[in-house]
Structures are given as structure tokens and as C-alpha cells.
Specification:
Elements (H helix, E strand, L loop, with lengths): L10 H38 L7 H21 L1
Helix pairs in contact: 1-2
């Protein structure tokens, strides 16, 4: 008995096509958000690490997530 993954209508083909359609916008948003985060992080770096913020890493992570959200907004508009 021979089992192949190249059967027409096989769900894996739909999964691969769906991944190529839906994943790139997310990667673009992270890529755009990373560059936004670089600018914001450089501007606020002294304030973040001066001790005014309780946990600089968590603040940095939240700035990155906000930057990715802004990247999604840039892609939508």
C-alpha cells in the first residue's frame, strides 16, 4: 500500500496555501513595529533605565507590542 501526500484536494495543500496568504501580513506588521520600537526605545531609553519605571523590561515589551499594533494600523490604512 502506497501513501502519498500529493493527492488532489488533500487538506495539507489548503493549509500551505492558507499560511502563505495569512502569515505575511503578520510578519510585515512585526517588521514595521520593530523599526517603530527602535525609534521609540532610543528616545525613551534614559527614562526607562533611570529607575523611574518599576520594571524596564516589561515596559520595553509593552512598547514593542504597542509598536506592532501601530504597524498593523499602518498596514490597514
Amino acid at each position: 500500500m502506497k501513501f502519498t501526500f500529493c493527492l488532489p484536494g488533500f487538506p495539507l495543500q489548503d493549509l500551505v496555501f492558507g499560511a502563505s496568504v495569512y502569515f505575511p501580513p503578520l510578519f510585515k506588521a512585526v517588521f514595521i513595529g520593530f523599526f517603530i520600537w527602535l525609534v521609540v526605545h532610543r528616545a525613551l531609553r534614559d527614562w526607562l533605565y533611570s529607575g523611574d519605571v518599576w520594571h524596564p523590561t516589561l515596559m520595553d515589551l509593552s512598547l514593542f507590542s504597542l509598536s506592532v499594533c501601530l504597524g498593523v494600523l499602518v498596514l490597514v490604512i
